[in-house]
Design a protein that fits this description.
Elements lengths: L17 H25 L2 H8 L3 H7 L3 H10 L13 H16 L4 H11 L4 H21 L9 H16 L7 H12 L18
Length: 206
């Protein structure tokens, strides 16, 4: 038997459509404005639909779950001077943590991260979102490290960003430049800095 067509309300919008992109961007902007005001629990689809002048069906088509919405709010945060690729581990790692600090002090990104983390133990969508965030960020950092010929593991990545998260969310203290430098210095002692076979650290004269 032929498959039944997906009902209109359940169809995911085409992200390549400029109109869809504008609608999605407007909704995320409104959500970012609302989060500091009402908190993650107060950011209901009813409120967001009203403030963004869209229907709740539109919201569910873009983000079937709240975890999906929070995921996009976290990864599509404000411009915080994204690091440049480089061949020096210390330079790239320092720039990465500096960018992470800026992102996590954003008044919308911070509560979104905390909400997804808090719900991950009992909400499968949040747990999946948290895993996807970690995978995405590790991949992004390794992309920046490509000129060095070095790719870090998931454990090495955790050892890099973990102290910053602990400082912000458990110690409730500022992440200073000195703190970042100390974290990177300690982290470098745990990382194999030897380039993989086949990677030339110096160009041979022609």
């Amino acid at each position: 038997m032929p498959e039944e067509p997906t009902p209109a309300w359940a169809r995911r919008p085409s992200i390549s459509n400029p109109r869809v992109q504008r609608t999605r961007a407007r909704i995320l902007t409104v959500a970012r404005e609302l989060l500091p005001e009402v908190g993650p629990t107060g950011l209901t689809y009813a409120l967001l639909a009203e403030r963004a002048s869209v229907t709740r069906q539109t919201l569910y088509r873009h983000w079937p779950t709240r975890a999906a919405l929070l995921f996009d709010l976290i990864l599509e945060g404000p411009d915080v001077a994204y690091p440049e690729p480089g061949d020096d581990l210390r330079t790239v790692a320092t720039a990465w943590l500096t960018s992470l600090r800026a992102g996590l002090t954003d008044p919308a990104t911070r509560p979104a991260v905390l909400a997804v983390t808090a719900q991950a133990d009992y909400d499968a969508d949040s747990a999946q979102a948290l895993t996807r965030i970690g995978t995405d960020r590790l991949g992004a950092l390794n992309k920046l490290l490509e000129p060095s010929g070095r790719q870090i593991t998931a454990d090495e990545y955790t050892l890099l960003f973990g102290p910053v998260m602990s400082r912000l969310f458990f110690d409730r203290r500022d992440v200073t430049d000195d703190f970042i430098n100390a974290v990177v210095t300690q982290w470098l002692t745990t990382v194999d800095r030897t380039p993989p076979p086949g990677h030339d650290t110096e160009k041979t004269p022609s």
